[in-house]
Design a protein that fits this description.
With 486 residues, the protein is mostly helical. 73% of the residues lie in helices and 0% in strands.
Amino acid sequence: MRAIRRIALITLLSATGTLAARAQDNVDRCNSSDPDTIISGCTAVIQAGGQPTDNLKIAYTNLGAAYAEKDDNDLAIQNFTQAINLDANYAKPFGGRCISYFNKKDYDDAIQDCTQAIRLDPSLDIDFLYRGKAYLEKEDLDHAIQDLDQAIQLDPNDADAFVNRGNAYLEKQDYDRSIQDTSRAVQLEPDNYLAYILRGTNYLIKDDSDHAIADFTQAIRVEPREEGGYSMRGKAYMAENNYPLAIQDFNQALQLSPGDVDDLRDRGSAYMDHGDDDLAIQDLDQAIATDPKDSGEFNNRGLAYVGEKDYARALQDYDQAISIDPKDSDAYTNRGFDHFFLGQFAAAQSDLAIAVADSPTNRYRVLWLYLAASRAGQNAQADLETNAAKLNLTNWPGPVVQLYLGKITSAELLTAATISDAKKNREQHCEAYFYLGEQALIAGRRIEARRLFQQSIDTGVTNFDEYDGAQTELKRLPPTTAAGSN
């Protein structure tokens, strides 16, 4: 917490001898830098009596500031209020009480007091800073930025103001300006933990995981006992598909904050992507036990059960996710896939139609809706053409949509799937063979479909829905006859 500025007592009643010496000692202690010394000194000044109002209001203000530094915000507010009662035109106790209200998360009263302090004395950057922080907590981002602009104008070297304005820009999704502000904060305070966390978060959102990892590592250097640096670096490692390092960081985060639901969910996701579905389910079981009203945890555990090929158990979790949040389109998508894997194509179509309506530019959802409707025995071509009009068909998997629209051949699709990155090449071929297999199956060419589904499985991309789709479709296909009939 930023310290509240104290003010020296301006005058004392005239006294002589021992009484004067004792009185001066009380004043000196009231004006010291140590909170406990201030409390004893200012209390003695107040209790001694005989002080003019100007001295008493300063004594109460200093006393409030000392209690605020000791995180006793209730006593701080009491003393700031006493100072205000003595002089309602004195700005500093309004500013001090604003900070104490802020620390108690009473943001409306904080804004009211900082506004009064600014009206009485607009020269103090700290009042603009804390009013801006209160607006930020209330998600009033425009007013927050206006106040933080003013705080920075009054004190261009205030790292706290740059950090908070950077946070506001992050919330407004203005990531470049947020990076500028948090970078300035780091220049001013190279050990500013929050600046590294915020700047790293911006980089992570911008898919710059290398810079994100570097910033989260700096945050860990500054505060090695804080859970947040490890948690965020774990997310960045996941973005790089470096699941062992991600799991290692989530382990450390959970040591520092045992049972943290977000860390359990994220470690579960890392285990799942690493192929450790049993461990993922254990983490997600614990997360659900702690927070049984989070649809995301049921959704993620459903994915882990899909990894275990327990599609019926996954379906239960997706049902629960949707009952908690009927607008969770990811849960509808995943339940649609799960119905597809179980051969329940009409139910898959129903769920995927909801998912596409929520996100009409999501090409995978459009593709799977087409497949579900087609496998349910419907002619889905017209709907595909309507949905495709909203899609970017240039980038992958756009060429698959073009295939189903009859605009490219299967050979052209495989060419489009071929890229230099070995991992991505394998993933796109897993998808391409699956979608080609579905095209063959819908057309009644079962032998060709069987071959293509097997080629999808042979890519070994076990964490893709297309891999699961190929496996389940292959199991449903009858074995080929000696004559090789369809």
